[in-house]
Amino acid sequence: MQYSHSDAELAHQPAGYWTWATARSILGDIHASLAKAGMTQPQWWVLNQLVDPDGARTRARMSEILATYLDPGARPIDESVDIVIALGWATEESTGTLALTAAGQLAFDTAKHVMDQVWARRHDGIPDGDYVQALKVLQQFIRNTGGQAWHHAIGEVNQPA
Asked: N or C: which end of the chain has fewer CB within 10 A?
């Protein structure tokens, strides 16, 4: 790969710009790929939570978990839950618990295949060790700037894609 700058020059490049450009590119790829599967990223997040073996989630818990994913806020998550229910991918029980339907499992399986392709494309030519190191650097940036990532806010749950 042809890099934008020499190593010495890259050492002085702004991390904010490169993380923004990376996020924009990755999210654009995810959004376009999921659109081909007939869903949005927040709808994917809802399905992904519901296939979890411990996926018994109420609407409130779903919003609590997913509101930390890329700052969508509770309203778009609640709207995504409504859409997932309207599409017949999930039901909302009288107890308030959301449950995946057979159609929802099929939608999840289709989107999972798409997301596996996105993952493979995104990681092409990047050894696992380099990827892990990059994430450690990003987590250190978050720590150094007093920020919080999703795992700080809600603990161990299915992470965003």
From this structure: N
* Threshold 0.90, pTM exceeds: no
Q: Give yes or no for a contact between 92 and 52, defined as CB atoms under 8 angstroms apart.
A: no
C-alpha 74: how far from chain center? 15
Strands 97-100 and 90-92: antiparallel
104, exposed or middle or buried, with CB in 10 Å at 0-12, 13-18, 19+?
buried
Where residue 88 falls (left for φ over 0; alpha for ψ -120 to 50; beta otherwise) is: left
Distance of CA 81 to the CA centre of its chain: 16
pLDDT in tens, 87-139: 999 999 998 899 999 999 999 999 999 999 999 999 999 999 999 999 999 98
Distance CA 101, CA 51 (A): 10
Which of 20-24, 70-74, 111-115, 144-148 has maximum average pLDDT? 111-115
Do residues 48 and 158 touch, judged by C-beta distance below 8 A? yes
Question: From CA 148, how far away is CA 62, in angstroms rounded?
Answer: 19
